[in-house]
Amino acid sequence: MRKINRIPLSATVIAYLKQRQQRVNHKLIEGNLDTTQEWSSARQTKNMGDILSALRQMIGKHERCMYCLDSHGSDIEHFRPKSLYPKRMFLWRNLLLCCTECGRFKGNQFPLDGKRPLLIDPSKEEPWRYLDFDPDTGNITARFDLQTYEYFAKGEKTVEVLQLDRREALAAGYIKTYHRLSNKIQRFLNEPYPLANNFINELKEADDHGLLGWCFLGTGQNEMPFKEFKQQHSTLWLDCARALGY
Q: What would the DSSP string read from start to end of 43-103?
């Protein structure tokens, strides 16, 4: 998982979403709203196709799921489920790109701590502040908070709901990315590149699963060879972190 930057929509699409949401709100007041039917009818329109294209553009050329970054993002997902939050059904900030498996696991689950969501929204927050990665198993786990001596609740719930620690194919994909990144770093340590930009671009190309956030922001910076890279090339480390958004 990695943080996704939300892009602006065209004025036409924004107006369309506003109109559809107003229609939903009106039906909700009248007591005749069928969220499944309302969404299905909208999903067939060109404007919703443009929204799907925008979400795919946000995630990058491989069009991966915004939750797991492993499987193909097949459809539009409501971060806050439309059946529970119909007033957010057509809000752009509530729409993500999701794979079939993550969508099935998540369903209508939306755990809260009071009014605060306990699921990570990758379009609003940095996932690796709450998540950790196990290089031995490939599993995504909750990150341990050294200040409270507890695991981050948001990390725990996200892992639990999306079953990020119980998906063998997902773990295998993360391990492959981990090894690619480790090899890139180790080769650099053995023979530093003359151009930092080339190195940064190579890291980006090798990172299919957003693990650079774990390396530069999360606990990965304490693991070899990332720790050695940080110690021996501290200036480049900071340049990489800055260029990668960490």
A: HTSHHHHHHHHHHHHHH-TT-B-TTTSSSB--EEEESS-TTT-GGGTT-GGGEEEE-HHHH
What is d(CA 58, CA 112) in angstroms, rounded to the nearest whole number? 26
pLDDT digits (tens, 9 = 90+) for 2-24: 999 999 999 999 999 999 999 99
- Output the CA torsion 182→202→7→24 (10° steps): -40
Q: How far apart are CA 150 and CA 144, in angstroms?
A: 6
- For the entire predicted model, the pTM comes to 0.93
